[in-house]
Give the backbone structure.
Amino acid sequence: MRGLSLQKILALENNAKTLGLSERLLIENASSNLAAAMHALKVGKRILVLAGRGNNGADSLAAARKLSAKGYKVTVLLIQEKELGPEVLFQKKILEKIAIPVYRIDAARLPKLTRFLRNTDCVLDGILGIGVKGEVSSFLEHLFGLVNASGKKIIACDVPSGLLPDTGRIAKAAIKADHTITFIAQKRGFFMRAGKRFCGKIHVVDIGISRRLLERS
């Protein structure tokens, strides 16, 4: 079977931390490679970043900063269902200090998403990543539907939100990406069930250290 299991991916991430790479440094490394891959894909100059509360969101926020430095017009929407995690808050504060627009989207503000989608060339999905558990909420189901129907190019950070990385099952709804820029290795679920349809073209980037070295550590 192609692709690594979630358990194996998490073990490799833990190996990186054992080698001395902190969570924050891994986010910086991963986001640099994410931004570089997006730049190479020529996705258009206006980027809408949809960021969740966890490290997938932090990766995307850090990539937003680096894309802005390359001359992209970047807008960030924080998906506000639960309290934001510490790494997302850290990246958010940096974006605010350098005047990258950051807005919050919750169920009450969801209709505004259509306006943001209209004024962008590409959507970076950093909502859930590998952290999806159970079925997504009705709020996220509606949000995913608006993004998928927008006609904009969609880039998934690591895993399309709503796709279970081990099984390829859809957790009620999912982002349907044109490209998935995934970290360390392809995930097992990319080649199972709906994974083949929802990932688009898959690009593997590292997190500042190669998979080969992580497997040796």
User: Anything to note?
Assistant: The helical segments are 6-18, 23-41, 55-69, 86-97, 113-118, 138-148, 195-198, 211-216. The chain has a mean pLDDT of 96. Residues 23-41 form the longest helix (19 residues).
